[in-house]
Predict the structure.
Amino acid sequence: MMKTLVAVGWMALGGSVCFGAELPRSSPEAQGVDSAALVAFLQEADEKIDSLHSFLLLRHGQVVAEGWWTPYGPQSPHSLYSLSKSFTSTAVGLAISEGKLSLDDEILKFFPDEAPAKPSANLKAMRVSDLLRMSTGHQTEPARTAKESWAKTFLAHPVPFKPGTHFLYNTSATYMLSAIVQKATGEKVVDYLKPRLFDPLGIERPTWESSPQGITAGGYGLSIRTEDIARFGQLYLQKGKWQGKQLVPATWIEAATSRQTSNGSSPRSDWDQGYGYQFWRSRHGAYRGDGAFGQYCIVLPEQDAVIAITSGVGNMQAVLDLVWDKLLPAMKASPLATNEKAHKQLQQKLKSLTLRTPEGSAPAAKVTGKKYLFPVNDRKLESLSLENDGKNDRIALVCRIDGVDRRIVCGRGEWYKGRGSWGTLTDRPLAASAAWSEGETFTAKLCFYETPFLITLRLKFTGDEVRYESNSNVGFGPRKQPQLVGKTGR
């Protein structure tokens, strides 16, 4: 497997925290963190969680450990999904501090042209604060389609409960917050936050998806780097202050991260500890923003720590359990004695992190250059072939999908980076790796390394036939698709 060299800075920095272009780095022990426990965390993550993409730990404002699993890297942005909600909440707090709106504003005042002709009493009573704490009064989440204004659909949706009395996690509610900020300020949330949050924190080139109406999606769609996630968490840990300047009011930080509504009672679930203003309360006195498939900004005030994680996992609770089991006990109140052996092991582990490449040592099957044709299918796969790329045993997978030829070069025992498309993932940074196994089976992994998604393709060749299977590591729907059978053109 190819090992990625991750730039990890290690130097003891004393005194007050001063953030410049980069966050300051320190050895773990200088900040009271046990290197051996960090190694144990990473080892268990590799063994039991498939898979983390990045990990960064800030303690007392210093980066004490950071790592990326190849092909993910420190300069690549990552889709945040619902972690975006916490940034939208921040935009609301800033707009309130500037007198543009208030928590008690009724939402209908912002949408006079999209409201129903006869709004219900519960819809009339719905306020900005109800959107923030996911207590809109809905029983089901309003849809978001390309056919109708998302705001109009939201306002037309039944509101059977009195707002403020019924918790329902509701991405459409966050979209409405984004739309309200745009109505109140005249700017899209992504643009409004640029001079107020992104630029001061050093978050470069954030991208954020928009609705068909040109409004920042709000509840998802933001992509930034792992260190940017950590900066955002550190800002909240510092009560909104950055480099001596109060970027976000401390009163907003306190309100947004406090329990504003109850959402369950299980002591073992981090999704039952209460909900703030687009932030989750967590066990152990922590709070967090998080997103689908394991995107986390975890703030631990009692430990003076921030943890940023990106991943592609189905079991999000398992990641948090690992944090509580391995990282929380590793944080001590005072600096620790230097542990050179554990420190060296940690550095080596961080430098060698990588997603698993396909396994196989069989020689290439004698199918190179043959084109296999497929009958009409819902995936619109028309043909495929394998070609030698001529470099380092790389193989090119060539497919014709919906009339378009696609060529993906796959490394052997390494991740080969390029750009590509597959399914709904179009023209994105892509790393691919492949191997042959016994039985003339070709396995390729396609990692879209600015997203959580990794697609595994298996091609089993028998005579003039190929059986094609594909599955995704995570997804909102079925992850495995039915087998397709192709045959050579002769």
In short: Residues 84-198 form a domain with the Beta-lactamase fold (CATH 3.40.710.10).
